[in-house]
Amino acid sequence: MSAIWYECKVKYRKIDENGIQKVTTEPYLIDAISYTEAERRINEEMAAYVSEEFKITNIKFANYAEIHPFEKADRWFKSKVSLVAYDEESGKERKTSMYLLVQANDVKEAYDNTVHAMKDTMGDYTIPAISESPIIDVFPYFSGEEGDLAALEKFNTIKASKIEVDVMEDPLDIEEIDNEVVVEEETEM
């Protein structure tokens, strides 16, 4: 199942290292199906995280192909990965870029974690850029724990369900022959 990620900026009061309360705006990443669901989910997540009031200042589509959390890491890094393909007809090399969000403690570890995330890739790739992301936290739709299996099954059921439309039978059989419409009426004997 491919995730759709939304970057949500939230403005709230925060106590800094010096014990001074200040207003800050921080970006969070939410896995959601739509902007509306992203807004609902960020409200739920932030209500558990922030005791005072907060304001969602922006929600935008985040262009991440994959998110890779790693244990014992506290920051997020945006890794640009260029997949390399060779065009046999023209003999030229083509690159297609995608962005990964990788958790790490520093840029070197982010590079190593990006290489680890790409280990099962069959083709050639390069990593032309890695930069620290301002993302504070990532909230995936499902964490994979046992309690989430029921929610995952419910999600898959909703996703797989389709609106059923009753199709009425046409009393006239209509066929198209060489862009001409031919109508055959049923005759009773």
Distance between the termini: 56 Å
- The helix-strand sequence is EEHEEEEHEEHEE
Shape: elongated
Computed CA radius of gyration, to the nearest angstrom: 25 Å
What is the strand tally?
10
How much strand? 35-45%
Mean pLDDT figure: 81
Which strand order does the major sheet show? 3-1-2-8
Characterize the biggest β-sheet.
4 strands, mixed
- Structural class by sheet pairing and helices: alpha+beta
User: So how many helices?
Assistant: 3
Helix content: 10-25%
Task: Describe the model.
With 189 residues, the protein is of the alpha+beta class. 21% of the residues lie in helices and 43% in strands. The strands form three sheets. The protein has a four-stranded mixed beta sheet with strand order 3-1-2-8, covered by helices on one side. It has a four-stranded mixed beta sheet with strand order 4-6-5-7. The chain is elongated. The C terminus is likely disordered.
Strand and helix layout:
Elements: E1 5-15, E2 21-31, H1 35-49, E3 54-62, E4 66-68, E5 75-86, E6 93-104, H2 107-117, E7 124-132, E8 137-139, H3 147-160, E9 172-177, E10 180-185
Parallel strand pairs: 2-8, 4-6
Antiparallel strand pairs: 1-2, 1-3, 5-6, 5-7, 9-10
Features:
single chain; 189 residues; alpha+beta; 4-stranded mixed beta sheet; disordered C terminus
